[in-house]
Amino acid sequence: MEKKEAVGVIVCRFQVPELHGGHYYLVNAIRDRHEAVLLVLGCVPFQSSTHDPLDFETRVAMIREVWRDVRIR
């Protein structure tokens, strides 16, 4: 078995109403290769818009429903 790296970092936005197959593939692939995963969620410095409709807390809750062990910043 191959040794896992300590932490895998994913820089993402996840500005979608539902996570899709690409999100699952990305996060699970990083989880398979690392001891821990850190998701760095990009945020805009102003109120939500049609381009960025979801706030940080909403996206964290959506991610936590699937991956409880992933760290999010």
What structural keywords apply?
single chain, 73 residues, alpha/beta, three-stranded parallel sheet, 25% strand, elongated
Concise structural overview:
The chain contains two helices and three strands, in the order E-H-E-H-E. By secondary structure, it is α/β, with parallel strands linked by helices. A three-stranded parallel beta sheet has the order 1-2-3.
Low-pLDDT regions: none
State the total count of DSSP E strands.
3
Strand order of the largest sheet: 1-2-3
- Name the average pLDDT: 92
What features would you describe in this structure?
This protein has helices at 21-33, 56-66; strands spanning 5-12, 34-41, 71-72. It has a three-stranded parallel sheet with strand order 1-2-3. It contains two helices and three strands. The model has no long low-confidence stretch (mean pLDDT 92). It is elongated and about 45 Å long. Strand 2 (34-41), helix 2 (56-66) and strand 3 form a beta-alpha-beta unit. The protein is an alpha/beta fold.
Reconstruct the topology from this structure:
Elements: E1 5-12, H1 21-33, E2 34-41, H2 56-66, E3 71-72
Parallel strand pairs: 1-2, 2-3
